[in-house]
Design brief:
Low-confidence stretches: none
Distance between the termini: 10 Å
Structural class: alpha/beta
Protein name: DUF488 domain-containing protein
Pfam families: DUF488-N3i (PF22752)
Strand content: 5-15%
Strand order of the largest sheet: 1-4-2-3
Number of helices: 4
Mean pLDDT: 92
Largest sheet: 4 strands, parallel
Shape: globular
Helix content: 25-40%
InterPro entries: YeaO-like
Length: 122
Amino acid sequence: MTDVQIKRVYEPADNGDGYRVLVDRIWPRGIKKDEAGLDLWLKEAGTSAELRKEFSHQPEKFEAFTVAYRKELDGSEALKRLLELAREHPKLCLLYGAKDKTHNQAAVLRDVILEELGGETG
């Protein structure tokens, strides 16, 4: 099974990261594209502008955010692409720009990917 981890894009790239995918819709401030160490920027995996504004990185809204974001992801091309990548690479690193390492879209994405992969028989 694929190892799916999450990491702030501001942290240095590491050999143990595996395939690195930025899952923010907006490019993170202060990071140069050639220094981010990305394999892919999958903008479509980020939350909608409306959901991002509603959540506003407030931990007390994370539960409602998670439910709404999962609905956005359901059947999306972005999720399909991430599942393909998870099947192709033994390690997948989802990168995000938020300061909160627990309450962010990459944490939700990781859970969704692992749930989807766990449901597969092999």
